[in-house]
Structure prediction request, 114 residues.
Amino acid sequence: VQLVESGGGLVQPGGSLSLSCATSGFSFSRYAMSWYRQAPGKERELVAVISSVGGSPNYADSVKGRFTISRDNGKNTVYLQMNGLKVEDTAVYYCNARRLQTYWGQGTQVTVSS
Prediction:
């Protein structure tokens, strides 16, 4: 099983980033997919989740209206479009797959700073 995040980096406040999580080794289309993040000294928190068929996305209140989660079951990939980034969005972002088992990616750093 592999979950490989990409797309992180350094961006100025108000900017945008697009994260991707390419997966393999499990039945991607059967799993709910999520993005979590963990800032230094803080607990890991759920950012967004999308069902196995791509419906009913849910978001943390702190990112509603700014972030969009999506998935492509043909490419076994989940995405997180992040717009209007704020300094407080700085964190390591992790991809998560959940059904009977739970799988995690290694994370990608997002830094929002002027």
Observations:
- The chain is about 0% helix and 50% strand.
- The radius of gyration is 13 Å.
- The first strand starts at residue 2 and ends at 6.
